[in-house]
């Protein structure tokens, strides 16, 4: 059983990583047409360094993802607190309404947003992208943080209150530290949702302000160069570092008690 | 040290009354158990005293202060939860120091008090561990240390021992009683376990459907139950029903049963409660009361023999007999049971 499990795990990882590794390798290949034999070269990285459009789009993506992550995590965590610890009218309806956006195809959400933003005068551009991404990420945050909440017993806060904590102090001294891994995970999720986002960004970007996926898409239409591989590699290594740092603190997929 | 008073407290959830007009007092330094079936309102009463629930009406007094409108964190209570509720991200010492810190006690003084509290629960030197590194019983002790280190006005415990296995539970009962006696804390203890209630408490309060049906010393509640419910809930009991006649009770089969209880007026119906261990298998004819019955089941439990019987009228009875000479009666044997008037208690239905 054990060796079979390991085999599946390895097979899954091979499947996931092979295309990525090939993509990364091709960024270091001299040939513009991805021809073999492989000749090592940093030519595409030099080209990338001079490709201001691609770099700006990359920077935009990261900034938007960061802001989205912070704002969506703050708002989503507050929503989770309200949903998990308070009772109020219409709570179960609100709770229910948070989930469908995750399942609604992004194309539909994006179209709806475009129409609504156009109609309401919000328009397109960076601010529109931010609003769209935050709205998109909040349900994920609520889901992740809400799941974290469920693992924290309410009587911990009660114990703190019996010892003299106000509800606010109890939340910050007991609940928040325990919720910390979930909040970090949610922030990461929000970051990824934003960084990954193509459809909605495509609708809300302007010619002067695009994100990396949108820019890559328009570059591909003009012609694929290994510069794309290069920037993808940079981005990949960046996000991998963030995720691995996170994984050091909270082991995802490992629910065993750490004794 | 302080007493706790509850005055006309009532609580209703939706349309279900959970507590109905409870008035009682918990004396300074006393240990009171709240005992009652599931859903009788024990937890609700405890949480109203703690301040987690606001009663619909009535007053809660701790010492001379009316705390009805004071929130939990202003009441200076010590509380122990069934699930221990230790803070998993803090060490044992930090857990115990939590309430001290809220009271502005820090540094060396806090350390001294934490050490003393951990010694009191016999866990000296455990301060640097985390809750996960302790056994269930040890965690329970830490929870107790954390609750008492703040010198609370009242110690509230909601079935704190029910998650422990039997042996550990008995050990913790002894510890709890010792610590309660040493600290002199007014203690209110919710339990399902009648034996636990009897052995630990100065007073036992029996709750039924949101009312305290009887409160008193364990012996009084056990020996002189006021209602059929308390007689049945605390221990086992046999019940005989008859009509009052000449200061005694005439049963349907014609026999006359004597009781030292004050009986209602002649002619009225009354229920008598007799503990199964107070009855004996007839040896002579000197007993004040007797009844004939047939054995239906014999339960051999080593030191004690437990017989289920049935009278000619089909009334079920129970008898507990010490296994003194090793003779065990058989199913179907017809015997005569005897007991004294003093152990025949008139109870309200
Ligand atoms: N928040 C609530 N909303 C509605 N009903 C409640 C609530 N809390 C308690 N009740 C009801 O009040 C009654 C008393 O509950 P309580 O928890 O006080 O009982 P208990 O004596 O502690 O029972 P147990 O021995 O099972 O712990 C129960 O019928 C319960 O269903
Ligand atoms: Mg309860």
Automatic annotation (TrEMBL), chain A:
<dbReference type="InterPro" id="IPR035906">
    <property type="entry name" value="MetI-like_sf"/>
</dbReference>
<feature type="transmembrane region" description="Helical">
    <location>
        <begin position="170"/>
        <end position="193"/>
    </location>
</feature>
<keyword id="KW-1003">Cell membrane</keyword>
<protein>
    <submittedName>
        <fullName>ABC transporter permease</fullName>
    </submittedName>
</protein>
<feature type="transmembrane region" description="Helical">
    <location>
        <begin position="96"/>
        <end position="119"/>
    </location>
</feature>
<dbReference type="InterPro" id="IPR051789">
    <property type="entry name" value="Bact_Polyamine_Transport"/>
</dbReference>
<dbReference type="GO" id="GO:0005886">
    <property type="term" value="C:plasma membrane"/>
</dbReference>
<keyword id="KW-0812">Transmembrane</keyword>
<keyword id="KW-0813">Transport</keyword>
<feature type="transmembrane region" description="Helical">
    <location>
        <begin position="125"/>
        <end position="149"/>
    </location>
</feature>
<keyword id="KW-0614">Plasmid</keyword>
<feature type="transmembrane region" description="Helical">
    <location>
        <begin position="7"/>
        <end position="28"/>
    </location>
</feature>
<keyword id="KW-0472">Membrane</keyword>
<comment type="similarity">
    <text>Belongs to the binding-protein-dependent transport system permease family. CysTW subfamily.</text>
</comment>
<feature type="domain" description="ABC transmembrane type-1">
    <location>
        <begin position="58"/>
        <end position="246"/>
    </location>
</feature>
<dbReference type="GO" id="GO:0055085">
    <property type="term" value="P:transmembrane transport"/>
</dbReference>
<keyword id="KW-1133">Transmembrane helix</keyword>
<dbReference type="Pfam" id="PF00528">
    <property type="entry name" value="BPD_transp_1"/>
</dbReference>
<feature type="transmembrane region" description="Helical">
    <location>
        <begin position="230"/>
        <end position="250"/>
    </location>
</feature>
<feature type="transmembrane region" description="Helical">
    <location>
        <begin position="62"/>
        <end position="84"/>
    </location>
</feature>
<dbReference type="InterPro" id="IPR000515">
    <property type="entry name" value="MetI-like"/>
</dbReference>
